[in-house]
Amino acid sequence: MTEQINAFQMAQAQFDHVARLLNLDPQAAEMLRWPTREFRFQVPVRMDDGSIRVFFGYRVQHSDARGPAKGGIRFHPSETLDTVRALAMWMTWKTAVADIPLGGGKGGVAVDSASLSIGEQERLCRGWIRQIYRNIGPRQDVPAPDVGTNPRMMGWMMDEYSRLVGEYTPGVITGKPVGGGGSLGRTEATGFGVVYNIREAMKRLDIKPENSIAAIQGFGNVAQYAAIGFKNLGGKVACVSYWDRDDQRPYTVSHKDGIDPEFLQSITDVYGTIDKDKARDAGYQIEDGMAWISKEADVLIPAALEGQVNAETVQNIHPRVKILAEGANGPTTPEADAVLQERGIFNIPDFLCNAGGVTVSYFESVQNDMNFYWSREEVLSRLDAKLTKAFHDVYEMAEREKVYMRDAAYMVAIDKVVKAMELRGWL
Ligand code: NAD
User: Fold this and answer.
1) What range does the domain containing 63 cover?
2) Which residues of the chain, if any, have pLDDT below 70?
């Protein structure tokens, strides 16, 4: 029987690899291999039928060396302490590489939120906060939405926390609705951030955006704004793809002149499912779900799921492809990574490429703290400045140390966290 390594073991293995490259102090390595604090608690919820169901909730604070822990709350049936630990560790590297003064955390509940009524969801959200409110807060740990949670839930959670501590505290949680303490620009942040990274990579690689083509997997939040951003940069988007909930299979949607992202958005539902009949009527071609990866393009943007660029699919990448920009978390397997390196395809690793979301989450808490809100333009221009600098810091590390971009991103991040630990006298 082959041993399955879980997400946390994988996160630790990645960390160990870079700790060796950096010749990291063993005490620092031991501290960073494990979360600083972890909480596991019961959340009993009164269901609509009057019964009580007990859910298990988690919050893991991997590191708060650079500032309050930061990271989403996932509501997913297969959530475990180990998935939350891995995601918390990855958040530490993401906030460090983006150079926002926050640490890494993550939370979750093992539940399929779609199986709950709105009232049950609200009671679960409020119950989660009641169990953990003493250990989170604007100066301790700031959660946000993730898979299975949404801005409305963040509004309930913020409200419950505010009631418990006796004062309005919008900065306890980010990803709140605009008008309820949320920030303008958050919806576009991750997808636009992917494109800021691509733009800077093109400058370094001497590729003209005007003549370039992108192929995108997914058409949800990240992919939609990556498509709009790429078109605004002057490039053409050959295709996007999506999971068709009626047919229970994925499709690629392409157009010979390049897709019109705003039009496709107008025929896409909240789950990122495109109405393929309307697309076909408008002259789009509907192909197999994995066709996106073999398109003749300069840039590939996986922005749907993990593990999509793998030992098998990597073989289908067109020779024209020069950049793989990881909009999704963990879209590339280690086997595919080795092939990409061999082929000289430039990688923008996930925790750098998709750091736009957490960066605007940070801007949201800054605005909450000031009780003063910025325009969308101000948010996006600050985001652009942050990510442009983050990209070049990683690129320069890769050049200087002659390492792959993914290793360079880890090196930049770990270096910053260890420096903060030293400055605080922990080492
Ligand atoms: P989403 O749920 O809004 O969209 C997912 C999209 O992927 C949908 O269009 C869906 O139809 C499509 N999809 C699902 N299975 C597919 C398949 N097999 N083939 C093709 N398309 C498929 O999700 P999102 O928020 O856009 O997130 C996408 C990825 O980006 C995830 O890995 C997420 O963790 C990561 N991410 C998101 C953010 C954010 O701010 N939203 C931030 C950082 C990272």
Assistant:
1) 35-184
2) 1-5
Residues whose beta carbon lies within 6 Å of some atom of ligand 1: 190, 217-223, 241-243, 250, 272-273, 289, 303-305, 327-329, 354, 357
Residue 66: how many CB atoms within 10 A of its CB? Answer: 24
Domain boundary among 133, 163, 184: 184
Token pair 């409200």 is found at 159
Q: How far is the CA of 171 from the centre of ligand 1 (A)?
A: 26
Instruction: Say if residue 214 is in the same domain as residue 90.
Output: no
Return the pLDDT at 5: 63
* AA letter at 352: L
Do 336 and 193 belong to one domain?
Answer: yes
Residues 134 and 191 in one domain: no
Which residue's C-alpha comes closest to atom 43 of ligand 1? 354
Looking at residue 135, its pLDDT comes to 98
Ligand 1 mean position, distance from CA 354 (Å): 11
User: Among this protein's residues, is 416 annotated catalytic?
Assistant: no
pLDDT digits (tens, 9 = 90+) for 357-369: 999 999 999 999 9
Number of domains in the chain: 2
| 275 C-beta neighbours (distance < 10 Å), count | 15
Q: Are residues 274 and 196 in the same domain?
A: yes
Element (H, E) at 360: helix 356-370
**330 and 203 in a common domain:** yes
Neighbours of 250 (CB within 10 A): 19
pLDDT at res. 10: 84
175 and 224, same structural domain? no
Helix, strand, coil shares, percent, the chain, to 5:
50, 20, 35
Let me know if residue 253 belongs to a domain: yes
Q: For atom 32 of ligand 1, which residue has the closest CA?
A: 328
Domain harbouring 66, CATH code:
3.40.50.10860
> What is the whole-number distance in angstroms between the Cα of residue 292 and the centre of ligand 1?
15
74 and 161 fall within a common domain: yes
Q: What is the Cα–Cα distance from 275 to 304, expressed in whole angstroms?
A: 18
Residue 223 Cα: closest atom of ligand 1: 26
pLDDT given for residue 213 in this prediction: 98
Which of 314, 348, 382 represents a domain boundary (last residue)? 348
pLDDT tens digits along 381-404 = 999 999 999 999 999 999 999 999
Same domain for 123 and 144? yes
CA angle, 275 as apex, 325 and 295 as ends, to 5°?
35
